[in-house]
């Protein structure tokens, strides 16, 4: 309280006001740079970019011909955990082994979750056999 029982208002001189405003702008700038870095990160990781359809599935033949490093890159696109990818790289696993494995095999051998194993298997496009010939039924 000031003299005579009056409440004092906060009074800022021009320099203090400028510093406060600059601090607010810097905070907004930080938020903007965080937002920008998230956008940059999403641009680097196409499988996570919203609104952009990116083909992550591969044909069985493509997977069979993947080397260890190519396989690791593809598994990364599928959001397989880094620990599983590291384990597979250390074991020098190639696409041929993965292409012929079932989800259960992958889960057991590489200690991955069922979800990750199924995601891998479901993203390997297998050739579809032609439909069986239809027999005509005689309806009398």
UniProtKB/TrEMBL annotation:
InterPro entries: SAM, SAM/pointed_sf
Extent of Acidic residues compositional bias: 1-30
Membrane-spanning ranges: none
UniProt signal peptide: none
Ranges of biased composition (kind: Low complexity): 46-56
Basic and acidic residues: bias regions: 36-45
Sequence ranges assigned to domain SAM in this UniProt record: 70-123
Gene3D superfamilies linked: Transcription Factor, Ets-1
Pfam families: SAM_2
Region of interest: Disordered: 1-62
Domain of life: Eukaryota
UniProt protein name: SAM domain-containing protein
Organism of derivation: Hemiselmis andersenii
């Amino acid at each position: 309280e000031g003299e005579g029982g009056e409440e004092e208002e906060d009074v800022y001189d021009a320099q203090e006001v400028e510093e406060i405003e600059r601090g607010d702008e810097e905070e907004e700038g930080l938020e903007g740079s965080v937002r920008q870095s998230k956008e940059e990160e999403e641009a680097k990781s196409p499988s996570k970019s919203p609104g952009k359809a990116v083909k992550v599935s591969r044909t069985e033949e493509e997977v069979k011909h993947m080397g260890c490093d190519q396989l690791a890159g593809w598994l990364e696109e599928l959001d397989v955990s880094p620990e599983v990818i590291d384990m597979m790289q250390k074991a020098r696993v190639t696409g041929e082994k993965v292409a012929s494995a079932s989800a259960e095999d992958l889960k057991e051998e590489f200690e991955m979750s069922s979800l990750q194993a199924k995601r891998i298997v479901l993203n390997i496009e297998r050739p579809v056999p032609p439909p069986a010939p239809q027999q005509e039924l005689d309806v009398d």
